[in-house]
Amino acid sequence: MKNPQNKHFKILIIHGPNLNMLGHRDKAQYGTLTLDKLNKKIRCTATDLDMDVSIYQYNSEEKIIQTLHRQRKVCDAVIINPAAFTHYSYAIRDAIELIPIPVVEVHLSNIYERENFRKISVIKDVCIHQIYGKKEQSYIEALFFLRDYLIK
Ligand code: DQA
Fold first, then answer.
1. Which of 38, 42, 84, 95 has the greatest number of C-beta atoms within 10 Å?
2. Full residue range of the structural domain in which residue 64 is found
3. Does 1 map to a domain?
4. Tell me, what's the pLDDT at 5?
5. Does residue 17 fall inside a structural domain?
6. pLDDT of residue 2 exceeding 90
7. Domain total for the chain?
8. Which of 111, 112, 120 best tests ligand 1's pocket when mutated (most atoms within 8 Å of CB)?
9. What is the 5 CA–ligand 1 centroid distance (Å)?
10. Is 131 close to ligand 1, i.e. is its CB under 6 Å away?
11. Which pTM does this prediction carry?
12. What is the 3-state secondary structure (H, E, C) of the chain?
């Protein structure tokens, strides 16, 4: 099913710190794709689903927060992989909580089957959905999830 109402949803995608190094990070956890290749895959799926994506990668908490603030009135939803910030950034949690659009948390790896510090997501409760452990498919699944969520 495409998008029966023919709405062109705008999705903000944010990759957090160190995700610019995909392809050089632990392939068993994060897969083999570079960030460029991952973004190409995301854009291809978005085109198939009639969605627009704006994709950003930041290594700093400040830029992630600023982008959430600035895009909150422009985009229909957010897909965010806050990377290590997932586990301790109450500032990103607060930014997600204050924006009026739905946010999906994604992770390439299965954060629940790794070190204890990764098992905690301080943003989970302010997101509408969490997808993890599917490598690049986590992002693809998030696009499908949001397409279904937004057309309801
Ligand atoms: C990650 C998991 C985090 O624990 C880690 O710090 C990352 C990536 C993931 O996509 O699996 O950088 O968010």
1. 38
2. 9-116+127-151
3. no
4. 63
5. yes
6. no
7. 1
8. 111
9. 35
10. no
11. 0.96
12. CCCCCCCCCEEEEEECCCHHHCCCCCHHHHCCCCHHHHHHHHHHHHHHCCCEEEEEECCCHHHHHHHHHHHCCCCCEEEEECHHHHHCCHHHHHHHHHCCCCEEEECCCCHHHCCHHHHCCCCHHHCCEEECCCCCHHHHHHHHHHHHHHHC
